[in-house]
């Protein structure tokens, strides 16, 4: 079941570090990088719909070395996406 309401989008402004910490809790297999499926879980946790599409797009935008995962140093590339497409408030 999909809830398309933005109930869990953080109202408070996050820093980029907060964003990384937030995203890391969705690193289900603990390999230190975020896969498309892990990003989808994160987006779903925000209460959004079209999570598969958004996760695919987010990985495509931020995956600088093209290995299909968001490595730690690529997560910053996701910040603009999170601000513009996920409505998150992130500073820096
Ligand atoms: Ca992972
Ligand atoms: Ca990568």
Automatic annotation (TrEMBL):
The keyword Electron transport does not apply. It comes from the Eukaryota. Pfam families: EF-hand_7. Signal peptide: none annotated. Residues 14-49 form the EF-hand domain. One of its GO terms (molecular function) is calcium ion binding. InterPro entries: Centrin_CML-like, EF-hand-dom_pair, EF_Hand_1_Ca_BS, EF_hand_dom. Keywords: Calcium, Repeat. This is EF-hand domain-containing protein. It comes from Aquilegia coerulea.
């Amino acid at each position: 079941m999909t809830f398309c309401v933005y109930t869990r989008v953080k109202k408070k402004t996050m820093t980029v570090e907060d964003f990384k910490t937030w995203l890391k809790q969705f690193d289900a297999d603990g390999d230190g990088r975020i896969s498309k499926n892990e990003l989808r879980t994160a987006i779903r946790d925000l209460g959004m719909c079209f999570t598969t599409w958004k996760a695919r797009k987010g990985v495509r935008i931020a995956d600088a070395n093209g290995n299909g995962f968001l490595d730690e140093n690529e997560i910053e590339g996701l910040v603009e996406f999170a601000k513009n497409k996920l409505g998150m408030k992130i500073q820096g």
